[in-house]
Design brief:
Layout lengths: L1 H13 L1 E4 L2 E4 H22 L4 H6 L3 H6 L6 H8 L5 H6 L17 H7 L4 H12 L8 H7 L1 H9 L3 H4 L1
Antiparallel strand pairs: 1-2
The structure holds zinc ion.
């Protein structure tokens, strides 16, 4: 019994820390630290001029951190606009033209999601799924928060090799 009491007391003692003369639970201190970190991150995220595509999907850091998203290369390419996309490759002088093989526009994320005729079958499936709950076209924010599964299927079916 004494041993159990000692272990319990040791556990309670370890879970508290002294902060500015006050004893606080480590868990309270940790969650306050996390809250402040997320607040600072959000402030930086709001101020940066980079990552505009990703910002359109995720405007709130706290919300993104609470999402359980299992990503892969195809999805990350769409969420960031970085990868085997002509507009991105052209920006870094890797290819000579940003124009999509469909010839309708530069091959950027919005073109792939909403316009490219080469992705019509994939988009039709995405649009069908989105239309059950939202209007088409919908925002990137709604795509990620309300239609993640359909978006992931869409991104997995983009034949990047034949779009290059
Ligand atoms: Zn196209």
């Amino acid at each position: 019994m004494l041993l159990l009491f000692s272990k319990f007391y040791a556990k309670c003692y370890q879970s508290k820390i002294l902060l500015k003369g006050n004893t606080v639970f480590k868990s309270v201190f940790k969650s306050e630290l996390e809250r402040n970190s997320v607040k600072k991150w959000q402030k930086i995220w709001n101020q940066t001029t980079k990552g505009s595509i990703t910002k359109a999907f995720f405007s709130r850091v706290e919300e993104r951190l609470s999402m359980k998203l299992y990503t892969n290369q195809a999805l990350t390419t769409i969420l960031m606009g970085h990868g085997n996309i002509k507009a991105y490759l052209y920006r870094f002088n890797i290819i000579d033209s940003p124009t999509c093989p469909c010839s309708k526009d530069d091959q950027h994320i919005d073109h792939l999601i909403c316009e490219c005729e080469l992705l019509k079958p994939q988009r039709d499936m995405l649009r069908f799924s989105v239309s059950k709950k939202d209007n088409w076209p919908t925002s990137k924010y709604k795509l990620i928060s309300n239609h993640f599964k359909a978006l992931k299927i869409f991104t997995n079916q983009i034949p990047y090799d034949s779009l290059g």
